[in-house]
Amino acid sequence: MCCDLKRRFLLLYATQKGQAKAIAEEICLQAGAHGLEADMHCLSEMDKYNLETEKDPVVIVISTTGTGDPPDTARKFVKKIRDKTLPPDHLAHLQYGLLGLGDSEYTFFCNGGKTVDRLLQELGAQHFYDTGLADDCVGLELVVDPWIDGLWLALNEVFQLQKEKEGMSNDVSADPHVGHEMNLSSKIQNLNLEDEGMRSSDGPSHKLLDINVVASATDTEPSLVHSVPPISQSALNIPALPPEYIEVQFQDTHGENPQLSSLISEGTTFEVPVTKASQLTRQDAVKTALLLELDIADTAFDYQPGDAFCVVCPNNVNEVEELLHILGLSEKGENFVCIKVKQDTKKKGATRPQHIPERSTLKFILTWCLELRAIPKKAFLRALVECTSNAREKRRLQELCSKQGASDYTHFIRENNVCLLDLLHAFPSCKPSLNLLIEHLPKLQARSYSVSSSNLYQPGKLCFVFNVVEFPACPTRPVLRKGVCTGWLAELVAPLLHTNKDTLDIKRESSATEKISIFARPNNTFHLPSDPSVPFVMVGPGTGIAPFIGFLQHRQKLREEHADWEFGETWLFFGCRHQDRDYLFKDELRCFLENGTLTHLKVCFSRDSSTAEVAQPKYVQDVIRLYAKEVARVLLKESGYFYVCGDKKHMADDVNDALLDVLSIEMEVDKLEAMKTMAMLREAKRYLQDVWS
């Protein structure tokens, strides 16, 4: 009778950058240990599952992308279940549990998961397990790990009810798996201090006391490589070891690497020349801001002001060489490798990662395919334990991937943006295999940038602005590192920049043209009002001004071509540190103001000292409060738009609070009513954000 009982559940995921898939794979891995079979598919593979006839419980893991949208791989699924012609009991037979992934630094937190959850509920589907919403801002694992732990008990209860409905015995002990499932940490290994994790590969086991004696007397504070009580004295619960599933076969050096376009599944890729580069900040500015102009005239690439696009970028060449050296593969970088799935792997449904070509050079894979800067997940740390020979290093890696070490993982790895190379420097006895890196490092993501131009104003041109990101050296990072894409772009266009320390006008036309690969990432909402007579407010400090330059260029061209049209007033709130060092587009803004394209320009400088008797506002949110009546008039009386672009954590939230104060004061209502008005503005797509963390 037990043989006839199905203990299968359908496991669906939708991912944008690979995190939801990795979590689904972890659920699939743990399922076997609980006597369950996970039938795992991407939501986009709609030919491989059918919710309309599904009788088993369904588990869904889904991320959020853009401004609260479901990931691209969920679009068809969402469209299908959003069909208004479906009856309200269409999925009444379905039992499901959903885990949503998001980032609370963005306004529409976990909206991808929330959207699918709501639509399933509207079609009559029922929860068998409470929805989990994991926050990447504080660490997905804080919600993901306990959610997965509780999932097994919830699934067990579903199957138990199924047994009762079928008239089978409800004796828990009748099923040899159930007792195993009730122990939610059954597949977690309890490590004693004297187990193999504490043994050196060439010496006897060491008790905790031995480790403390060896440790430096100054190691009284925890660090990436050192722990203190209680964790250093605790037995550890560490994840199960993920099964290896990739096989790497080295070949000769003959052949050609794939085209970069073959690595991109998000859209059509265009290789375009960089025709101009300008440094917008002075040499002594805190950050270096660059403006790049691309020639798209000979392509089908199209955009609107406010859109974003993605740049396909490589890993830093020095980091690739360094990793090859650590792996002992410096001499094989130009060799072609063939990537296959191990025939004897224990990983169910294992396939070659789609972002890894079946055949290419090793250096191509490390340069263009794998995110070397990714923060290692706990499953990766667990796999690295097996590649580490030093007993103390091994123990520390075990601590960092354990439940007991959750806070250490967050503080020393997650918050410090520690990457694989940092770990390999910190734990020099760790020598991972190439297949392990391919299995655990995620896809190298293209980087998204806001368009800073108008195709109407500059036909055939696309401009964008960025700060060259820097990660300074620190105890967990031995060297300063620049952003993967911004560092590469800055190096790429360095020959185009003519440095003149006495002026901000440091640009020149390209002679030897460099090319980059891009693809469109249209923004469905962050666009100019369709009615040009509608007024709008723009808030964009620092490089957040980028899309608004495109807005104003577009508006200026429309004014030139349609003198008989009515145009609404335009406001721009801009801020930077120093008026003479990083006031971006200063001359252009003055021209927009003089020709009437820009009606009001309000600027502030946070680091400049003021001699005025009345303290000058330092930040854009302060200036917004000074013009409360005007802002409220535009939004409430004239049905205007309010745009915010820039840093989420240090600006957008403060602007949100300032606007809340403005509405509360000018409407003479309490904060709750003002919040309702702001919600109405968002719903009407008149309060729009393009922000990043």
UniProtKB/TrEMBL annotation:
GO CC annotations, alphabetized: cytosol
Known cofactor(s): FMN; FAD
Catalytic activity: 2 cob(II)alamin + A + 2 H2O + 2 H(+) = 2 aquacob(III)alamin + AH2
Subcellular location: Cytoplasm
Annotated ranges, domain FAD-binding FR-type: 267-529
Amino-acid biosynthesis recorded as keyword: yes
Broad EC category: oxidoreductase
Keywords of this entry: Amino-acid biosynthesis, Cytoplasm, FAD, Flavoprotein, FMN, Methionine biosynthesis, NADP, Oxidoreductase, Phosphoprotein, S-adenosyl-L-methionine
Gene3D superfamilies: 3.40.50.360, NADPH-cytochrome p450 Reductase, Chain A, domain 3 (1.20.990.10), Nucleotide-binding domain of ferredoxin-NADP reductase (FNR) module (3.40.50.80), Translation factors (2.40.30.10)
SUPFAM superfamilies reported for this sequence: Ferredoxin reductase-like, C-terminal NADP-linked domain (SSF52343), Flavoproteins (SSF52218), Riboflavin synthase domain-like (SSF63380)
Position of the signal peptide: none
GO MF term set: [methionine synthase] reductase (NADPH) activity; flavin adenine dinucleotide binding; FMN binding
Example GO BP: folic acid metabolic process
E.C. no: 1.16.1.8
InterPro entries: CysJ-like_FAD-binding, FAD-bd_FR_type, Flavdoxin-like, Flavodoxin/NO_synth, Flavoprot_Pyr_Nucl_cyt_Rdtase, Flavoprotein-like_sf, FNR_nucleotide-bd, NADPH_Cyt_P450_Rdtase_alpha
Domain Flavodoxin-like: 9-152
PROSITE patterns associated with the record: FAD_FR, FLAVODOXIN_LIKE
Subunit relationships: Forms a multiprotein complex with MMACHC, MMADHC and MTR.
The protein, known as: Methionine synthase reductase
Source organism: Phasianus colchicus (Common pheasant)
